[in-house]
Amino acid sequence: MDVARRWAATLADTKGVSLPQEQLEEFLLGVAQDAVRTDPDHEPARLRFSKLYSASPIGIALADSDGKIVEANTALGKLLGCRPSALRGRDIPGLGSAEHDVARLRNGLSQLMTLGQQTQQERLLLDHSEEGTLWVDVTLTDLPGDRPGSAYPVLMVADANEIHLLQERLLHQNVHDALTGLPNSAAFGNALETALAGSGSDQVALVYLDVDGFKVINDGLGAGVGDQVLRGVANKLKSVFTGRYNGSVARLSGDGFAVLLRGEFTSPQVIALVEQALDELVEPIYLGGHGIGVSASAGIVVRPVADGGPEDLLRAAEIALHRAKEAGKAQWMLFDPELDARDRGRYQLGAVIAGALENGEFSLIYQPTVKLAAPDQLAAVNAGLRWTHPEKGELDAAEFYPLAQITGMTIPLGRWLLAESLAATARWRNRFGDAAPDVCVRLPKRLAIDPDLVLMVKEQLDRHSLPAQALRLCTDRESVFDPRGEVLDSFAVLADLGAQLVLTISGSADLELIPRHALPVRHVILSGAVIDALADGENEADVRHLCQLVTRAKELKLRIGAEGVRSHEQAERLRRHGVLAARGSFVADSATGDEVDELIERHAH
């Protein structure tokens, strides 16, 4: 009662308190009585907290108002590899491993004590007495003290080492290639954006590399050997580029790698590194008793950092690599903006082939083949394609067939050529009868290897009611032996139907393919150097070579012709040495549909 009266008097004198002293005495007495009644419950609560504190799997440290540890539980001692008593007297921030860990604990403690802000689940490194460092999740909070308004810091620590290392491992796997350990395409994309960020006078270089013929290694020696070869390639590339101009190497996909450089350098300096890398790759590595060396093609682009974005750089490197492969592989190619501008024009042309075919911009162009013993008689008419472009004018097959190959339009163009050629042949036969020449269609490689070639030919012959003998199909050795198709089988069936098969040859090696593989060929066409050698005269060695070819062709019961004949004198020399027919500018470079009709009519009479 005396205590209540004393506190009531004190509070009554406090500025702002409006209650009378008697009422305050009554109020505080009630508070005291309540405290007496509830006091017995404090001991069980204290015991529960003590047991929880001691048995908790989470490390707990109780500190004083200055942040010094006054008590630590067993779990915290075990977590940090020491006795709990050894932690007494240490500052909470001092448990941090590195300076930034100490700073984070100090900042969290300051916010807790001055602002009452709790730091929840902050991951950092603490020192372990034996194992060095340990990743943990810490929580800083406070507990009320004995005096009203007082509070003391409490540090709670949970082991996060295993989960952190797992997360780091998963993160590493997400941005690194599992086979080589190099950064993957996603990581490389981020690195490229970082390299191009900001300004300055630095140069950036991007190098794309593809291993040439890797499929041969993979299929021939097995995927396991192929994987080891790729690891070897990765190691050699790292040894050349890592540490040079902030160089980094990545594996993009399959046998494709990329190198990124940034710094002060010139194109020749980058080229020198690329050449060093290509030389390193050629040096064999020995796997399973096999000394395996590889070649690679490289596309290089070098430019100022501020000159364009990642897309432009990637596109330039791809174009340079493609050009290196087209040039024969096992070499590098530096991106050339002027050449790229020309290529863009070509690719734009290739992109509209389908629309041009649908819009009727293609037409047949012919080249007559005459009998050299009787030049007024047609032996055959060779049919080809011409594109009348609305802006670029007339384009020959050599200008658009390579583009059609890239865009997948070779088959549609080949179908159209075959259909229109046989339609013209049917028209000639109706008009000129037996005097109508055969039509010869040179098959683009993609059409020659197409598994539906026989069906295509048969459909068009039937459609125009033509015998198969009216059609000559011309191809070359590359198409005949292309591994992607069953050309030999297709030609055998076409020969059985009666179609005349023609092989373009340039020498004895090509000619001997016919008996060696039992090719159902009836005509051979000499092309290239063997014909050009007789353009201006007769060299003894050249004539001997030609005569050997003619003699061998006769032994094989083949009819032999020539293409690319430029003059009547050249035609006469070929005739004297046994060539039966020829085509070229000595007759006509080309003829349109109407012109060839007139030519056939003239020859027919």
UniProtKB/TrEMBL annotation:
Residues 45-116 form the PAS domain. Residues 346-604 form the EAL domain. It comes from the Bacteria. It holds the Pfam family PAS. SUPFAM superfamilies: EAL domain-like, Nucleotide cyclase, PYP-like sensor domain (PAS domain). One of its GO terms (biological process) is regulation of DNA-templated transcription. Transmembrane segments: none annotated. InterPro entries: Biofilm_reg_signaling (IPR052155), EAL_dom (IPR001633), EAL_sf (IPR035919), GGDEF_dom (IPR000160), Nucleotide_cyclase (IPR029787), PAS (IPR000014), PAS-like_dom_sf (IPR035965), PAS_fold (IPR013767). Residues 202-337 form the GGDEF domain. PANTHER family: BIOFILM ARCHITECTURE MAINTENANCE PROTEIN MBAA (PTHR44757:SF2), DIGUANYLATE CYCLASE DGCP (PTHR44757). This is GGDEF domain-containing protein.
